Amino acid sequence: MNLRVSKIFEFETAHALWGYDGKCANIHGHSYVLTVAISGPVINDPNHVKNGMIMDFGDLKKIVKKEIVDVYDHCLLVRANTPHAGYADVETAFKKIWLTDFQPTCENMLIDMVKRLQFNLPDHITLKYVKLLETRSSYAEWFEEDN
To answer: pLDDT per residue over 82-111, tens digit each?
Structure first.
């Protein structure tokens, strides 16, 4: 039987949107909440240490921590090839800057996260849903069935 399980992760990230016509053109930060839902067969083997699980939540946490949380947490995201890229030259002010090849919107960040997860999940696990809350009322969602 296939089921879905989900795990929620939290991290802090700052970004600035070059060329944007509002406040988000300035450096600002968010407390992001990421929900990851996976699907796969439930292990039905009394002799297996993961019996009754799709995937150990701890194993999922290791993947998300390495591929997303450690990358994004307390990082400033600015788009490369824009004047914002100059922030990377201010070594004493910022220690963790990512010069992205995309406009660092919630939507584009989610696309990057989905790609990282799809590449790193075990073959028997399917990524079904990912939601990235930028604020309590603003978020982007990815559904496997839409892609």
So the answer is: 877 777 766 556 678 899 999 999 999 999
Rg over alpha carbons for the chain, rounded to the nearest Å, is 17
Tokens of 124: 């028997």
According to DSSP H, which parts of 34-90 are helical? 57-64, 70-72
Q: How far apart are CA 102 and CA 58, in angstroms?
A: 31
12 half-sphere exposure, CB direction, 13 A CA radius: 4
Burial code (b: 16+ CB inside 10 Å, e: under 16) for 37-76 equals: bbbbeebeeeeeeeeeebbeeeebeebbeebbbebbeebb
At residue 119, φ and ψ (nearest 5 deg) are -70, -25
Q: Is 75 a catalytic residue?
A: no
All domains of the chain, ordered by start, with CATH?
Answer: 2-146 (3.30.479.10)
Residue written as token pair 């890229």 = 85
| Annotation marks residue 74 as catalytic | yes
pTM above 0.70, yes or no: yes
Q: Which of 24, 106, 107, 144 is catalytic?
A: 24
